């Protein structure tokens, strides 16, 4: 079941289909294009993450959460063959940090999982949230829920743990695949974004 689950999560065609979040012609699609254009222009990443004048902060956060999910999912997907039950029996960031999984359905209490199991639960859980219209509304005029930024904080906090695990346990694989610059840029972009909007508790950032 685990192998099947991972296969689904990291099947490139399935996982990286264009998300329904960015329908052409919508406000969020325009925001996404704006964000991508400034990213590609090589602007300072600290400037890239700032909220464009006149835009809604929740729209801006929504666009970035979905984009970071896609990109971090892709990073982990490319190296998932190096992250196995055997190599990573615990989801950790070095000797000092261990991450346990908890959700509202199967794992009510924080539970020890291997890194690949944790990643699988995480990607499925985020995908379920960003495809839930009550949490990430896509229709014009439908307001974001009151707890939207709290949900995003939870998503981004858990995505940060993917960077922690990948950097501490699989950095040699990143280098051998020639993906170091790409991963570093993605991490920096993510880091400046969460700092700009104070979206993650600074204690969570300690491992890196």
Automatic annotation (TrEMBL):
Keywords: Kinase, Metal-binding, Transferase, Zinc. Zn(2+) binds at residues 83, 88, 165, 170. The keyword Kinase applies. Pfam families: Mob1_phocein. SMART domains: Mob1_phocein (SM01388). It comes from the Eukaryota. One of its GO terms (molecular function) is kinase activity. PANTHER family: MPS ONE BINDER KINASE ACTIVATOR-LIKE MOB. This is MOB3C kinase. It comes from Aegithalos caudatus.
């Amino acid at each position: 079941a685990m192998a099947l689950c991972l296969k689904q999560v990291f099947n490139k065609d399935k996982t990286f289909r264009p998300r329904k979040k960015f329908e052409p012609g919508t406000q969020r699609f325009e925001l996404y294009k704006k964000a991508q254009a400034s990213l590609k222009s090589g602007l300072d990443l600290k400037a890239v993450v700032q909220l464009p004048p006149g835009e809604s902060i929740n729209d801006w956060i929504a666009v970035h959460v979905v984009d970071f999910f896609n990109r971090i999912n892709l990073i982990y997907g490319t190296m998932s063959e190096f992250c196995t039950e055997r190599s990573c029996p615990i989801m950790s960031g070095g000797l000092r940090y261990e991450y346990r999984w908890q959700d509202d359905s199967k794992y009510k209490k924080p539970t020890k999982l291997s890194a690949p199991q944790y990643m699988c639960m995480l990607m499925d859980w985020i995908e379920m949230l960003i495809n839930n219209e009550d949490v990430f509304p896509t229709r014009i005029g439908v307001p974001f829920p009151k707890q939207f930024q709290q949900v995003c904080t939870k998503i981004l906090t858990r995505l940060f743990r993917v960077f922690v695990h990948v950097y501490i346990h699989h950095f040699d694989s990143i280098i051998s695949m020639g993906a170091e610059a790409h991963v570093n840029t993605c991490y920096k972009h993510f880091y400046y974004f969460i700092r700009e909007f104070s979206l993650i508790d600074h204690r969570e950032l300690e491992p890196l």
